[in-house]
Amino acid sequence: MGACPCGTGRDYDDCCGPLHAGVPAADAQALMRSRYSAYVREDADYLLRSWHRSTRPHALAFDEPRPAWLRLEVLRHVATGPDSAEVEFVARYRIGGGSVVRMRERSRFLREDGNWFYLDAVGG
């Protein structure tokens, strides 16, 4: 399929593809990268499945105008407890012919029954 959108340099089928197909993420950073790839691929089902039930929206739509995701840079991945972690990242995107937007975020993740879930964002 080609290079994975998450920026590891690995092939999608050897990187985020297995997670999108149901393989559990090894850690919060892997889940965060797979979620970025899911946004690039507009895979709403995966995004909802990997969202913690306490903060998960009922539905997820990709509204117009759609961003063109350009690059992901992971700045930091830290365990905050035995089953919790934070990943700080910068994602760059562009809408139409506009300027590149730099989105910085600190995302929180929880592990339940061996599976990591996105909880929420706590700012950048």
From TrEMBL:
<comment type="similarity">
    <text>Belongs to the UPF0225 family.</text>
</comment>
<dbReference type="InterPro" id="IPR023006">
    <property type="entry name" value="YchJ-like"/>
</dbReference>
<feature type="domain" description="YchJ-like middle NTF2-like">
    <location>
        <begin position="28"/>
        <end position="121"/>
    </location>
</feature>
<dbReference type="Pfam" id="PF17775">
    <property type="entry name" value="YchJ_M-like"/>
</dbReference>
<dbReference type="Pfam" id="PF02810">
    <property type="entry name" value="SEC-C"/>
</dbReference>
<dbReference type="InterPro" id="IPR048469">
    <property type="entry name" value="YchJ-like_M"/>
</dbReference>
<protein>
    <recommendedName>
        <fullName>UPF0225 protein QF205_14895</fullName>
    </recommendedName>
</protein>
<dbReference type="InterPro" id="IPR032710">
    <property type="entry name" value="NTF2-like_dom_sf"/>
</dbReference>
<dbReference type="InterPro" id="IPR004027">
    <property type="entry name" value="SEC_C_motif"/>
</dbReference>
